[in-house]
Amino acid sequence: MWQELERAAELTVLDHHTDRAAVTAALPGARALITSWGTPRLSEELLDAADRLELVAHTGSAVAPYVTEEVFRRGILVTQAGDAMARPVAEVALAFTLTLLHRIHRFDHALHNGADWNEAGQAPPRHEIHGSPIGVIGASRTGRAYIALARALGARVGVSDPYLSEADARELGVERVPLDELLRGSRIVAVHAPATAETRRMLGARELALMPDGAGLVNTARSWLVDEDALLTELATGRLDAAIDVFDTEPLPTDHPFRSLPNALLTPHQAAGTTECRQQLGASAVEEVLRFLRGDPPLHFVGPEALARVL
Asked: Which residues contact 89 (CB under 8 A, 6 or more apart)?
């Protein structure tokens, strides 16, 4: 597909080390721009330089860090490639779920730190996913992919999402549940909500305290959604377990208390980092440019409402 793009257009490739002056110099005459993590935000200055720009194709899901309202005011089309990220992130969330249910992270931590065989076996009760009550916050693309995987393994899934209709819930095979009830009744809570002004710190000290002893929290979405200090306080008591791929400060500081907790499973914001996902993200953006050059409508268009998703 990249070869097809090379045949169809004159390309300029800028990596994330390119300074702003070089980016500005490359924009005059460009009709389409493919953006990724680390791309400068398209300010009025950059847009003025991009005098012929008609399309911005982003290789991620959230466009707000890179696109401004001015982009839409100037009539520039914006697309994103978030569909490609849903499956790999859902798979990681499922792997986290199984790990927390079986306390694999606790055994691993104990053995790495010199515990003998009997000591290592003194984990809290373990459970199978079949028949387990699993709570999902947010029936997003990733949330729906996770729901399908969890249900395929026999989980009983409840969903808290104010925008999920009863008809959609029936189609997904889940029960709509108010957030507090979902937290009280779930063995694992998986967070898949978008990062908006309304969802900031939606899981704070009060909400985490509702979760039953021995429950687990899975967050492969955004740290924005969880009060990190409140979660740390709960984890320090040993009452809950958590599997976390996203943090308030990234990279996670080497002295962060999360790193020393045996009941915390940590990964460095890499849930979507599979080879297949990276290829699909690039292919999605390239396909949007090729469609634009052919005069076809974009497949994954987003409008100004996408700016409400802040991360």
From this structure: 142, 145, 146, 220, 271, 272
**Catalytic pick from 106, 109, 187, 222?**
222
Q: What is the rounded CA–CA span in Å between residue 262 and residue 308?
A: 36
Question: Over the stretch 155-167, which tens digit does the pLDDT of each residue have?
Answer: 999 999 999 999 9
Tokens representing residue 67 in the block: 């696109």
Establish whether 250 is a catalytic residue.
yes
- Give the CA count within 13 Å in the CB-facing half-sphere of 114: 0
Token pair 């996203």: residue: 246
Q: Residue 231's closest CA among 252, 202, 193?
A: 202
- At residue 265, what are phi and psi to the nearest 5 degrees? -100, 125
Among residues 226, 222, 189, the alpha carbon closest in space to that of 206 is found at: 226
Q: Where are the alpha helices (DSSP H) in 153-264?
A: 166-172, 179-185, 205-210, 228-237
37 by Cβ neighbours in 10 Å (0-12 / 13-18 / 19+) ranks as exposed
Per-residue confidence (pLDDT) for residue 118, from 0 to 100: 83
Helix axes 104-112, 83-102, angle to 10 degrees: 70
CB 43, CB 68: distance < 8 Å: yes
* Residue 300 a catalytic site member: no
Give the tokens for residue 87: 């499956």
99, 242 contact by CB (below 8 A)? no
Q: Which amino acid is at 25?
A: A
What values do phi and psi take at 201, rounded to 5? 55, 40
Query: Which of 4, 198, 250, 276 is the catalytic position?
Result: 250
Per DSSP, the three-state class of 120 is: helix
Model pTM above 0.85 = yes
300 neighbors 81 (Cβ within 8 angstroms): yes
Q: Is 17 a catalytic residue?
A: no
Catalytic residue selected from 184, 269, 278, 291: 269
